[in-house]
Write a structure and sequence with these properties.
This protein has 222 residues and is of the alpha/beta class. 16% of the residues lie in helices and 31% in strands. The strands form 4 sheets. It has an 8-stranded mixed sheet, covered by helices on one side. Strands 3-4-2-1-5-6 form a 6-stranded mixed sheet.
Length: 222
């Protein structure tokens, strides 16, 4: 019998994560925790069990403490993870990897991370907790993603790249090898990152340019 898990979130990213979990086949999704959808309603085939504050009662009732935070925004995913840990200190955040992803045998991946279809993580990489390596994103040898960072679909990172805490690299961007991106920074879609970018920046372009500073909790550009 597969391990029962709860997903936090019921939006588009949660639906994508559910697809990875279903394909991997290690876990069974028992339901969703979401703050917006009506309790008892269905989202992509799974029941909304309750709100965030209902979690202790739900865990006691269902008698398991495992799940995954499925929120695309890095800051919000980190914040919710912290709140869950405060409510239930021994809650276990699972990691899920799509069967079509190519992950080298010596890669380390933290808890609460999702690796989506056709992603590639090569020799010697370290991926932290709560990260997203999205569809067809690649991380070449000896690169690092710090906790709660994310690569959008189609991102390519060269060898020894570094993505800082809670930073997001947008759709189809390219990060050259040995280039570092700081903490809480957002790189826009299609960018060519050929130079170091510091903390709390918005940057985009070919080649990339720092456009402005940003707050750590600021929503992504749309």
């Amino acid at each position: 019998m597969n391990i029962q898990v709860i997903l936090f979130g019921a939006g588009g990213h949660a639906e994508s994560v559910a697809g990875v979990i279903e394909a991997e086949g290690k876990y069974a999704i028992a339901g969703l925790i979401d703050s917006k959808k009506p309790i008892g309603s269905l989202a992509f085939g799974y029941e909304v069990l309750g709100r965030e504050g209902h979690l202790p009662d739900i865990v006691n009732k269902m008698n398991f403490k495992e799940g995954l935070v499925c929120i695309g925004d890095n800051y919000q995913r980190s914040a919710l993870t912290g709140r869950i840990k405060n409510m239930i200190p021994d809650f276990n955040f699972i990691t899920t990897i799509h069967p079509s992803a190519a992950v080298s045998h010596d890669v380390t991946i933290g808890s609460g991370t999702v690796v989506m279809a056709q992603a590639a993580i090569n020799h010697g990489c370290r991926v932290g907790a709560g990260c997203i390596v999205n569809t067809k994103a690649s991380l070449d040898h000896n690169s690092v993603m710090e906790d709660f960072s994310s690569l959008a679909p189609g991102v390519t990172c060269g060898g020894q790249a570094f993505i800082g805490f809670c930073s997001a690299v947008g759709l189809g961007a390219n990060v050259l090898g040995k280039i570092a991106i700081g903490n809480y920074t957002v790189v826009g879609a299609g960018s060519l990152v050929n130079k170091v970018i510091g903390d709390n920046k918005v940057a985009y372009g070919v080649p990339v340019q720092v456009i402005r500073d940003r707050n750590s909790d600021e929503p992504y550009l749309r």
